[in-house]
Design goal:
five-stranded mixed sheet, two-stranded parallel ribbon, 8 helices, 9 strands, globular
Amino acid sequence: MGAGSARGLAHIGVIQVLQEEGIPIDLVVGSSMGALIGSFWGVGLDMYLLPRLLKELNFNQFLDMQVPGMGFIAGNRMEEFIRVLTHGKTFDELKGKLVVVATDLEAGERIVLQEGPVFQAVRASISIPGVIKPFTLNNRLLVDGAVTDRLPVSVARELDADLVVAVDVTFGEHEIKIRNIIDVFLQSISLLEKQIHETRVVEADIVIQPSVANLGMTRFDLIEEAVTAGREATILNIPKIKEALNL
């Protein structure tokens, strides 16, 4: 499940439909927002209750602003929110296998996380460079997984996945509207990674691309629209998935 900030809420709709259709999910590899939604799936949260819960939240309450050192947002409130919703579980305690992708800022390389507390790995994977303070884990300074692997298809391959269904919530044909500094950072990262991203899409067996290009990357208030887009795109691909699985 790929990065995409608020557009990544579409991942919830994707999981809903796969569960409704009896499609087994053996592994979720998530980058950035994909890692966050993947962690909620991993602990077994109700994917229908989750949108209602998120809709009631005021996302501004997670913006613990600070004098910029390594980021405008300290990220402590986000970290606590993730810890609570994932019940502080480790990867070994999850109901489903989850792998989180982050980026080692100093080494300039992709990092694959699948051990220890889940909330720490996810906190690292959502750390937008320059916006959210990097997270130090195992003596590494980690930032957003999207910096090195926006759609981690290759990680799933490396873990011997037979059928890889990639959920791409990043690019589209709609005009991007830049409204604030976070949009600037997010769009810059997206553009830098676009060519590599397109190559990774091709590497997947099946690609689900929810129509979320018209949703701003910081519009976390448009949860229903994002979830619906995820559902619609997945429903269109169910015949392909069932055929590939001989269901």
